[in-house]
Amino acid sequence: MDDNENRSLDFKEFLKGLNDYGLLIEKDEATALFQHFDRDGNGTIDFDEFLITLRPPMSKARKEVVMQAFRKLDRSGDGVVTIEDLRGVYNAKYHPKYQNGEWTEEQVFRTFLDSFDSPYDKDGKVTKEEFINYYSGVSASIDSDAYFILMMRNAWKL
């Protein structure tokens, strides 16, 4: 559907894509659907907006275990995980790139944070929303609440 290959869909590409896939709906319905996917309201749908909109919501139990992990990381309690929060919670000394001298402790921490950070705004700070969004993606691929909770508890030693 991304005819100009800019990694997002404008409304024209969206309409053409709907037509190409045989989804014949009224223009006002297509507009409402487009606006539903265009979460930031910038007139385009990027890949992350597309995936987030399609993802099923996490159950209350899953959200709670994700929040337990976030609270464990957010040592300052300010709602944002930073490199300073990671000191004493995450041991960089076991990371292979730290052990072989390729990375510093700061680089290990930053790479760890970047994995949870928004893909287009890697600022070294992970908000509660970014953390939940990351685990919403993980959650979407795991059918069982019990398995997801067990995985989270084991991974975060909760």
UniProtKB/TrEMBL annotation:
It comes from Ataeniobius toweri. Residues 25-60, 61-96, 104-141 form the EF-hand domain. Pfam families: EF-hand_7, EF-hand_8. PROSITE patterns: EF_HAND_1, EF_HAND_2. Keywords: Calcium, Metal-binding, Repeat. This is EF-hand domain-containing protein. InterPro entries: Ca-bind, EF-hand-dom_pair, EF_Hand_1_Ca_BS, EF_hand_dom.
